[in-house]
Amino acid sequence: MAREYQEGVGILVCKWFEPQEKPSTNPSRASMQSKLEAVFECESMRLNGRILSGVPGKVSMLFQDILLAADCACAIQRELRLEGLPAVKAGLDAGDLDTNSPGFLPADESEMAAELASVCISGGIFLTENAATGLKDHFRFRIRPLGKFRFEGNFWKEIFAMDNDSLLFPDADWFARQGERLKVAGRESQMDRRLEKEPSGVGKKLVKVVLAGFVALILVVLGCVNFLPGKTAVASDSHNSLPTIAVLPFRNLVQRPENEYFSDGMTEDILSLLARIDGLVVLSRNSVMRYKNTQKSNKEIGEELKADHLLLGTVDKLGSKVDVTIRLVQSGNDHEVWSGRYDRNVTDIFELESQVARDVAQALETKLSAETQRRLGEVPTGNISAYELYLRGRDYYLRYTDEDNQRAISLFRRAIALDSTYALAWAGLGDALGQHAVRFEHGKEILDSSMIASRKAIALNPDLSEGYKSLGLAYHYKIEYNMAREQYAKAIELNPSNDMATANLASIAIEEGNFIKGIFWARKTLAINPLSTITMTKTSEAYYLLGDNVKGRYWAEKAIQADPGFSEGYEFLFFQLIHEQKWEAAEALVKQMENKVPNELKTAEMRAHFNLFKKDYAGAEKYYLKADSLLKLKKLKDDYAFLDLSLGYVHLQTGRKISGEQMLKRAIAKATEKYYHGNGLEKMGSCRTMGMAYAILGNSDRAVDWLETGFDLGLLMTEFQFDIPYFESIMHDPAFLALQTEMKLKATKMREELVNVVGEGVKIGEIVLP
User: Fold this and answer.
1) I need a surface site. Which of 266, 509, 621, 735 has the fewest CB within 10 A?
2) Model confidence at 520: pLDDT above 70
């Protein structure tokens, strides 16, 4: 095992309690130390490191390279902040192992990391010159020289500090306290000049954001969302400062449908390469693929996507030859900015795609850093057959059916069999297995295999956005939200057009009841995928729960307009219409659902709810039973307590007391199970369900207790949710009314905070987008 660490290793030392404090004698300190050690162990294992030694107040970790050590240091500081634990002092060094004593660094190198941790500030990361040099080409780390520091033993060493957004950097007081121990050179060091000349991804993006006048916004958001990926494409109101480009689906000139996967694959590959370039906002794959075979004009597409430029292409693949023609046009007037033709062998496809990305960047006068040039030139696999299998697998994966998902898994595995170092294929397999486990309900135990495949992808290529996204999805499905957030953040940092990662961050935040963070990430998603129906729906839900019915209705209607077949978009709009007693409009909405998605669970539920509000209990029961049949037909494994609750209420209203109470007790049992074993959203939903069930049974104390428990978890309810008939028996209960007031006050406060984070809105024409 020691041979894995022979050269270029990284060592990380973290210190927290000073030894003289003897934390083990203090129970609270001992408990805190155990939590800290759990974080160290988890993060070091995740990044293939190992703990060399640990004593109270200090831990030393060894990694295969300095990049992994730096990632671990940043992850530890972030995780401690998320968990509410004290920040640590971190020291990083890089060196080679002593081959005469395998498993250990030479004493001067191992001790330097510890020395740095001693002089570091809490929440910061200090580095030796070796460590700083090893990280200088990695854009996600911003490193600044501190000067020459005199350590115990009277020797001087140049030291550095990380200046990433989530870390603390020494202030003027720290420099003043060092006195003669620190010599700050009058000139900038070579590394500092390099950073000024060629900023990291974080630095460049922040500079552009400042120039665009959004520094106040970013400062607020940093405090709100815990991290802000440096390369994330900012929301639509910042597009004025950066060119926005949509890569439309390339047209397959060979009239053979089986070749479509290849032209679609090239579209996505070039889109992904362009997304690596700082200075461009590249719209996501999900936003552009809906224009495949469209009859819309370039101007219409540009207006819908809010894109300045469109990249159009044709692909002519015959045997081992591929001929590609590319045009870059301005969307507003169809003016051609640049065009190019590329005639290559299929085996040179990656060089072709890389050249297209470089040529587009040049046409848009976007400078490429050395790091970006390197990443654009990466060859994902040397086996063209493995590449074609991967493209076919990706094509099936994106169809989102159970059968196609299984085909995708098989194709990804075949690609890996041809090239076991093909990181993208491993990431695709991890993603497909995650969907196989949860979306298509084949068992959450499969998530372990998903994580193994995703970690393999990251190990093979630490700069691969897809690997972090697939690992984040597995953590998401495992309801390990902190880990999921971290992986999604890395995915976005590496590919700002990864709208699946931004959308999932929005989903997690809303599931946890953090609607401000949820709307922030939803806006990020809509900036790179303006037609994301599910994100519009989530935004609508968040605004409704915050009591902003105008914006809630706006986004609900936008979601329905974008995809009338997406049943989730109708629900909150339906209840608002019921609340306003607009019966004709509510029924028209239900009829629209019945025309577009007749066999969806939500459609049957909405018709049942409509009948319930109209006191047509026979009609309500009929459609609740239809919903139950659809639930069983889909073979969904999750118990759905709300149907039992609704049927129980209907039975009581029609005089069937025994069966009604039995159904309500069954609903309570299912909700209790979900409360103790579900995720944040499921826990809050369970509290609401139990509150309704006990209210129907006339037990106001238990009803309010469960609703208050949900409120403590983050549950908010809209004004029209309180009007639902299930609360009739407790509608005038003082405790119930007091809880409504508390929820409204919290929603009002969150709305005010939201204005500080995302502003009042962005005016486009006569419409102000929330």
Assistant:
1) 735
2) yes
pLDDT at residue number 756: 67
**Looking at residue 447, what is its pLDDT?**
92
Beta-ladder partners of 50: 62
CA–CA gap between residue 520 and residue 514 (Å, rounded):
10
Run of H or E including 93: strand 89-95
Residues 6+ apart with CB under 8 A from 520: 221, 224, 225, 506, 509, 757, 758
Compute the distance between CA of residue 439 and CA of residue 639 in angstroms, rounded to an integer. Answer: 15
Name residue 655's amino acid: G
Per-residue pLDDT averaged across 172-201, rounded?
58
- Tokens found for residue 499: 């709208």
Residue type, 14: C
Cβ burial, residue 493 (10 Å; 0-12/13-18/19+)? buried
- State how far the Cα of 497 lies from the Cα of 227, in Å rounded to an integer: 17
Question: For residues 551, 555, 558 and 563, what is the CA-based torsion angle, rounded to 10 degrees?
Answer: -160
Burial of residue 298, with CB atoms counted within 10 A of its CB: 0-12 exposed, 13-18 middle, 19 or more buried? buried
Q: What is the pLDDT of residues 392-409, one digit of tens each?
A: 998 888 888 889 999 999
Between the alpha carbon of residue 490 and those of residues 142, 168, 188, 583, 596, the distances in Å are: 15, 20, 30, 47, 38
Closest CA to 166 of 94, 275, 79: 79
Q: What is the pLDDT of residue 28?
A: 56
Please report, for residues 240, 447, 672, 673, 768, the alpha-carbon distance to residue 678 in angstroms, rounded to integers and kept in the order given: 43, 16, 10, 8, 37
- pLDDT surpasses 50 at 198: no
∠ CA 68-73-75, rounded to 5°? 90
Beta-bridged to residue 155, according to DSSP, are 151
Neighbours of 701 (CB within 10 A): 11
Residue 440: exposed, middle, or buried by beta-carbon count in 10 A (0-12, 13-18, 19+)? middle
Non-local (6+) Cβ contacts of 651 within 8 A are 621, 657, 659, 660, 663
Per-residue pLDDT tens for 731-740? 999 999 999 9
- Other beta carbons within 10 Å of 661: 15
Beta strands at 89-95 and 9-15: parallel, antiparallel or unpaired: antiparallel
